[in-house]
Design goal:
By secondary structure, the chain is an all-alpha fold. It has one domain. Helices cover 77% and strands 0% of the residues. The longest helix has 37 residues.
Length: 321
């Protein structure tokens, strides 16, 4: 048995433990620091209907991710069962190791290569998948921030949050389009450029499954909105959307599960947009229960099963669908 086969599973265990410790610290320390010592009591007293809606939205969000995976990475290679295994496991690793989603990207690439995909094609396809997914992120953050700043959308619009968010969105989109036209011979840049071009081709092909990228983000934002409604009055849609994406930039920090990065950034963004500190804290902590722990609980067993499936692939000439 090769050591590399067990690596994703062992890393997953370590990351779950680290994320659990970090989350426990966050749930205890953040309310104290923010002067909202009754956050736990409020967390237990949320409206059951809105919390049930949050659960349903999280399921729908994951469904969008699966559809996108099938459209970009799964066609002709995997059936629904293996597609679900890879996406569950990949999302769990993304949740546990933030750093821009490095954990999920690494596990997905590992699975695709084990299934017999060419390494360079895996790099191109994964780039196309990520570009499709995160173009929605950047475009929505750009539109939301500019809409609030200009007064087109209702809600508080602090310049210190709206203009930097718009600049990040516009900058990333522009950089991606420039990279797609570049002729760099460096392998990473070349594969990324090919992935961007493939993503553009997929969009031009009008595959309805690409709407899964919109669903992934839209329904996850609906989870946050439902959690805020469960404990008070959620802000306007534009404020919720923009604060959500500003908070998600915390995923770039190499913290277990993004804990402290995502949570802190999202809470700070909501407060900056005028949401009461107590509501921002309890709403985000509740959101993280649905957005972090549910995919993690489902994804850890999927990691183990995916490793078993990958071992069986080695004994066959075709991937097990």
């Amino acid at each position: 048995m090769e050591h590399g086969h067990d690596l994703p599973w062992r890393r997953a265990i370590v990351l779950v433990v680290l994320a659990a410790l970090a989350t426990a610290a966050l749930y205890d320390l953040v309310p104290r620091l923010a002067g909202a010592g009754d956050a736990w009591a409020r967390l237990r007293g949320g409206d059951p209907g809105w919390l049930a809606a949050a659960f349903a939205f999280e399921v729908l969000s994951f469904g969008g991710y699966v559809l996108l995976f099938r459209a970009v990475l799964g066609d002709g290679w995997f059936g629904w069962r293996v597609s679900l295994l890879i996406t569950f496991a990949g999302v769990a690793m993304t949740r546990m190791l933030a750093a821009g989603g490095a954990g999920g990207i690494a596990l997905t690439a590992w699975a695709l290569k084990r299934a017999g995909r060419d390494a360079r094609q895996v790099a191109v396809d994964l780039s196309a998948f990520l570009v499709t997914l995160y173009s929605v992120f950047m475009a929505a953050m750009l539109v939301g921030a500019l809409g609030l700043w200009s007064g087109l959308f209702p809600g508080d619009a602090p310049v210190a949050l709206t203009l930097p968010a718009a600049a990040v969105g516009a900058g990333v989109i522009a950089a991606a389009l420039l990279l797609a036209r570049s002729g760099s011979e460096r392998r990473i840049a070349r594969d990324a450029a090919a992935g961007i071009r493939r993503a553009i081709e997929l969009v031009r092909g009008h595959d309805a499954r690409l709407l899964g990228a919109v669903g992934w983000w839209a329904f996850d934002i609906a989870v946050l909105w439902s959690c805020l409604e469960a404990f008070g009055d959620a802000p306007s849609a534009a404020v919720t959307v923009t604060a959500y994406f500003v908070g998600m930039l915390g995923n770039l920090l190499p913290l277990p599960g993004g804990v402290g990065g995502v949570d802190g950034a999202m809470i700070g963004a909501l407060i900056g947009f005028g949401v009461a500190p107590g509501l921002a804290i309890v709403g985000v902590l509740a959101y993280r229960v649905f957005a972090f722990w549910l995919p993690t609980v489902a994804g850890i067993p999927a990691c183990a099963e995916l490793i078993r499936v990958a071992r069986r692939w080695e004994a066959t000439t075709q991937p097990i669908r």
